[in-house]
């Protein structure tokens, strides 16, 4: 009598697809009742079939056929659209699956010819409690197997979810005897020759897990697995609780070196390590490519402070380190200049930093000049006597003037003798700033080591007439006369000085005579402006030089008179005009050396000085300097000292039009560095001879040698 098991065995031998299996299974009872003659003929198992269910057949009702035309009338196979004659097209299955094709499970696909591909469909289901082909077990059905049949000594065999044996609960009584046996992978110290390296790790200690069925790799380590092991200091993200701060840095991101041998601190930062990192603006000499100009200053020297923030105190501070000698010859002036870029706006504050050594500071007059605006201020004048050296900042906000206490006479922040606030409101600090140090007496000397101009600016003008502060362009402000009295403005009779609404001196309350009106009023005045009453340095016991008139006192100024010059004079007494258009006079200088400075005195009587052209010639080199040409129309006479240091050109005031200390039209410094010895010629030309004759009375050349 046939049974269900006989039916199952029969089904397994058939090559038909699952729909046939289902049909035959349904007829099993009929077979048992003798209806065997209704069973379709079963193919011979020996006809070459494998006896396994095939997954390539086509179930009943499948309308596809081999060699179907893939071009169809409605489209083309492969265009992703199911057309007439196509079961499917690409991923488009028309809602079909393995079950709709008569299989129990699996994944239906579409073949290249747009017919169903059932190769991934299956006629068996893991989990149905019945062991099918390819299954070791299924649910509780172990097919009679147990732990012993699997090579274990005991325990409970189970079936895994993929219908393979689960031996996790099986045991081996020999596990723990230190010898690998049976299904044991390892046993105690017996690792079968394996170690961590053979297990794919970098090193460490391999062990055997308690069940002898696998290795215990917890003692192995591998750089890159994000777990610190063995000699590793760190591993990937596993830093062992360390961070930049614990490594001695201020902050940042700590990382692990690629070989796990140490920490990568390139992402850490520490103020003082000389490298900008994290929130640091700078670090030591590393300014991150920044400079004063980049921070909005005119220029200067940017630095970094101890907290790794920018130190801008050196910005807008412009320095020179000339190492120039001061003295020791008397009446010598040391000159140095600094050029500041323009465009920074109005000056709001200005200080001067000076470092100089000198053995008799009381000999010195120190001044600062802004050549572009023609303004000057005295920093100190003949103070501190025999005390030595200067290391000071002249600051209008300082508490007091220098205390002149040794060992450094002028030190720290000191008030200047002049008023540096006179530059507050200067529209542009740019241009040339000049420092002059005059050593008045012979003997003591020193060196100008360094000096700086520190200037602060703003786009808004900080000065305002009426604010009570005397600033740039103002002589006074309100009640503030900046210490001035009538005599300081040239009114020699005194009186009451005031300030008008434009912040200029109001001298209506001052008394004359007035110095500066180009008229000598005796006895109060011995000269006035360029009117020097025919006086010369020689009249005051000097070898030569250029005599000028001081202001505001209108006294003779002997500053350019000197005993250190070589003076040679000539008195041609020659007519200049209709008789002789050009008169030349030559003198010869003796002595070795080169020229350091040249001044020229000229005395010409002439009723029309604008006819005169006067030139000094260094005969050996042919160098020619223009002293005066066609100056002072309708003016009378010349009695002048031509020198580069003079305040300006002639004032053309009668009775002598070209008089006093006069700046030549050319520059006498063109003679500097030439040989002192030799012939020097003065040429006086009357370029309009028909009228106005004159006399070339006298001339002198004063040369200071190097």
Describe the structure.
The protein has 706 residues and is mainly beta. Among the domains are: 317-458, Galactose-binding domain-like (Jelly Rolls); 562-705, Jelly Rolls (Sandwich), CATH 2.60.120.260. Helices cover 3% and strands 28% of the residues. The protein contains three helices and 44 strands. The strands form 16 sheets. Strands 19, 20, 22, 25, 26 and 28 form a six-stranded mixed sheet that branches. Strands 35, 36, 38, 41, 42 and 44 form a six-stranded mixed sheet that branches. The protein has a four-stranded antiparallel sheet with strand order 21-27-23-24, with no helix packed on it. A hairpin with a 4-residue loop joins strand 23 (364-370) and strand 24 (375-381). The chain is elongated and about 150 Å long. The termini are far apart. Mean pLDDT is 87; it is low at 1-73.
CATH topology type of the domain at 562-705:
Jelly Rolls
Question: What fraction of the residues are assigned to beta strands by DSSP?
Answer: 25-35%
Number of strands: 44
Fraction in helix:
under 10%
Count of helical regions: 3
**At CATH's second level, what is the architecture of the domain at 562-705?**
Sandwich
What is the rounded Rg? 57 Å
Average pLDDT rating: 87
Largest sheet: 6 strands, mixed
- Separation of termini? 145 Å
Taking pLDDT < 50 over at least 5 consecutive residues as the criterion, the unreliable ranges are 1-73
Q: SS-based structural class?
A: mainly beta
**CATH superfamily grouping of the domain at 562-705:** Galactose-binding domain-like
- Based on CA inertia axes, which overall geometry fits? elongated
Just give the CATH class of the domain at 562-705.
Mainly Beta
């Amino acid at each position: 009598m046939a049974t269900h098991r006989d039916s199952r065995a029969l089904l397994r031998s058939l090559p038909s697809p699952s729909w046939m299996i289902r049909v035959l299974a349904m007829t099993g009872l009929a077979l048992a009742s003798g209806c065997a003659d209704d069973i379709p003929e079963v193919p011979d198992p020996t006809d070459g079939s494998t006896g396994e269910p095939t997954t390539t057949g086509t179930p009943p009702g499948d309308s596809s056929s081999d060699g179907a035309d893939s071009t169809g009338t409605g489209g083309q196979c492969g265009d992703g659209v199911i057309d007439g004659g196509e079961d499917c097209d690409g991923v488009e299955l028309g809602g079909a699956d393995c079950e709709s094709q008569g299989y129990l499970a699996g994944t239906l696909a579409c073949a290249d010819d747009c017919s169903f591909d059932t190769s991934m469909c299956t006629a068996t289901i893991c989990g149905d409690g019945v062991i099918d082909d390819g299954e070791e077990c299924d649910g509780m059905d172990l097919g009679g197997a147990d732990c012993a049949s699997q090579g274990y000594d005991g325990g409970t065999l189970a079936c895994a979810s993929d219908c393979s044996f689960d031996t996790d609960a099986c045991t081996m009584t020999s596990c723990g005897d230190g010898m690998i046996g049976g299904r044991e992978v390892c046993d105690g110290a017996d690792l079968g020759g394996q170690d961590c390296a053979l297990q794919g790790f970098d090193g460490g200690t391999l062990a055997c897990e308690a069940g002898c069925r696998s290795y215990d790799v917890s003692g192995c380590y591998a750089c890159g697995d994000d777990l610190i092991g063995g000699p590793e200091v760190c591993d990937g993200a596993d830093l062992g609780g360390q961070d930049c701060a614990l490594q001695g840095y201020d902050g940042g991101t700590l990382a692990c070196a690629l070989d796990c041998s140490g920490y990568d601190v390139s992402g850490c930062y520490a103020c003082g390590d000389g490298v900008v990192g994290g929130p640091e603006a700078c670090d030591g000499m590393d300014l991150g490519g920044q400079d004063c100009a980049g921070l909005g200053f005119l220029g200067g020297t940017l630095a970094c402070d101890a907290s790794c923030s920018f130190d801008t105190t050196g910005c807008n501070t412009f320095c020179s380190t000339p190492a120039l000698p001061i003295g020791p010859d008397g009446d010598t002036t040391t000159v140095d200049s600094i050029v500041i870029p323009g465009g920074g706006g109005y000056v709001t504050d200005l200080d001067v930093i000076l470092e100089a050594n000198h053995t008799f500071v009381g000999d010195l007059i120190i001044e600062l000049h802004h050549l572009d605006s023609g303004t000057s201020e005295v920093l100190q004048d003949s103070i501190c006597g025999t005390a030595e050296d200067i290391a000071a900042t002249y600051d209008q906000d300082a508490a007091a003037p220098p205390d002149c206490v040794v060992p450094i006479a002028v030190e720290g922040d000191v008030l200047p003798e002049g008023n540096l606030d006179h530059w507050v409101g200067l529209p542009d600090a740019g241009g040339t700033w000049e420092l002059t140090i005059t050593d008045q007496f012979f003997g003591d000397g020193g060196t100008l080591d360094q000096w700086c101009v520190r200037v602060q600016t703003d786009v808004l003008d900080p000065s305002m007439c009426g604010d009570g502060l005397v600033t740039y362009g103002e002589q006074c402000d309100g009640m503030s006369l900046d210490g001035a009295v009538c005599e300081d403005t040239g009114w020699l009779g005194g009186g009451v000085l005031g300030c008008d609404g434009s912040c200029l001196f109001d001298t209506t309350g001052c008394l004359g005579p007035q110095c500066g009106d180009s008229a000598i009023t005796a006895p109060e005045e011995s000269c006035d402006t360029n009117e020097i009453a025919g006086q010369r340095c020689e009249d005051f016991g000097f070898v030569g030089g250029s005599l000028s008139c001081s202001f505001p006192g209108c006294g003779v100024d002997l500053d350019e008179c000197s005993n250190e010059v070589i003076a040679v004079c000539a008195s041609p007494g020659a007519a200049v005009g209709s008789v002789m258009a050009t008169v030349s006079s030559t003198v010869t200088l003796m002595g070795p050396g080169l020229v350091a400075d040249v001044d020229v005195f000229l005395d010409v009587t002439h009723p029309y000085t604008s006819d005169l052209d006067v030139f000094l010639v260094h005969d050996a080199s042919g160098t020619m300097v223009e002293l005066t040409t066609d100056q002072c129309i309708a003016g009378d006479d010349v009695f002048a000292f031509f020198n580069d240091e003079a305040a300006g050109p002639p004032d053309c005031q009668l009775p002598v039009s070209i008089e006093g200390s006069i700046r030549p039209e050319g520059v006498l410094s063109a003679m500097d560095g030439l040989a002192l010895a030799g012939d020097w010629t003065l040429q006086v030309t009357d370029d309009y001879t028909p009228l106005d004759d004159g006399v070339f009375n006298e001339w002198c050349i004063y040369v200071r040698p190097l």
